[in-house]
């Protein structure tokens, strides 16, 4: 059976070279890699169909065909479109038709049984492919534009400016079409279905009440990397940490997300800066891949990174806590897991203060390594930790963050044990792949149906109407 995974952003390579160094390199890449590898173990032939990038600054993405391992399944198929240079995901919208046309040429005469699509750009490409071939597809959103718009406080006044940067008009129309024409919408939690997909910007097309339209498939944790085995450590990371800590033995509060405004790092820095109690109990550790020392490297960073880091550094200087805040540059998931394990020995706490988190792989990975977890109550974590195995906080309330961190630090043994059990029992990529296989087998049996006409990729009016009335 041949299944395509559509991921037009083009950032797959076997070494995860830039994971978290750029806003487009994060959870979606891990998710698609792990699910497709486990599907391959179930005898499905998987192609991850992505963008070919021939750019001196991004040399990992140029080969037409690539593989994660010697089994050559999954195959990474890189399709050229929109020139050769690396582009941010927001710039791809006008060129997805070219992507799909080139996919059609690449697969001409070859069999395709089913398509899984990822993120709004993959979903829209699935719609275009269906319009040509009638092939059924599933849609996995990973992160939806409407929640991002709401949490970035987009209003009818600033919409035009923010739309230039984020291209919500195209993204939200792409999501609407994907929801409408997918044979199945795959969500990570049932909360994602009922809360995120029932947003007024989607409610008329997302069929939230229709059980046959949705399948809840929780993602997983790669326990070969994220576990509590202290004999399996990345030695460079051990050296980096030992060198920085210089034998001090306090617990850490660990922040390790991509530098993206919606991840809201600053809230934890403020909570820490404002609480003597927290400062007495723990140090603050911030993991930033590719930025060993932000105080000296800040000028070398992109404007976006600077705009997120500058207030963090100012807060640290203002509160005079430079000696308690440590930055770590961790270059792989193995390095990340090593840091989590070493900090677990110090009874440390992982914190994710996102304004909104669609699911959140990072907290379950940290929990698998033994860290206690404090996470935003907005989004996936409220379902993941609904059994009380993690502490939920309001990311917009600094005092609540302080209290959540203190609770987790004071009860480390209880939370660490409980979260580890929760993650190992409920979140494995093998069972994620089994869920996908069910969707694929069901989709293959459905009749093929081409679409008459795909509407233009523009939700400008729908969004403005929503912003003016806060309803459609
Ligand atoms: O220093 C680091 C920090 C993170 N990671 C990895 O990056 C991934 C981050 O994933 P996640 O925590 O899920 O966040 P996002 O990158 O924002 O991923 C998007 O896609 C995911 C998969 O659908 C969802 O879980 C998220 O909510 C959604 O925002 C994890 O696997 C981490 O191991 C690293 O490799 N190094
Ligand atoms: O912030 P956004 O635009 O909702 O997107 C989340 C991003 O995270 C990712 O998971 C990073 O891989 C991609 O899906 C997407 O580029």
From TrEMBL:
Q: Which residues form the Glycosyl transferase family domain?
A: 242-412
> EC no.?
2.4.1.14
Q: Which InterPro entries match?
A: Glyco_trans_1, SPS, Sucrose_synth_GT-B1
The UniProt record lists the Sucrose synthase first GT-B domain at 2-226
- Per UniProt, the enzyme's principal EC class comes to transferase
One MF term in GO for this entry? sucrose-phosphate synthase activity
Chemical reaction(s) catalysed: beta-D-fructose 6-phosphate + UDP-alpha-D-glucose = sucrose 6(F)-phosphate + UDP + H(+)
Q: Does the record carry Glycosyltransferase as a key word?
A: yes
Record keywords, A-Z: Glycosyltransferase, Transferase
| This protein's record includes keyword Transferase | yes
Family to which the UniProt record says this protein belongs: Belongs to the glycosyltransferase 1 family.
**What name does the UniProt record give this protein?**
sucrose-phosphate synthase
Please give the organism. Answer: Petrotoga mobilis (strain DSM 10674 / SJ95)
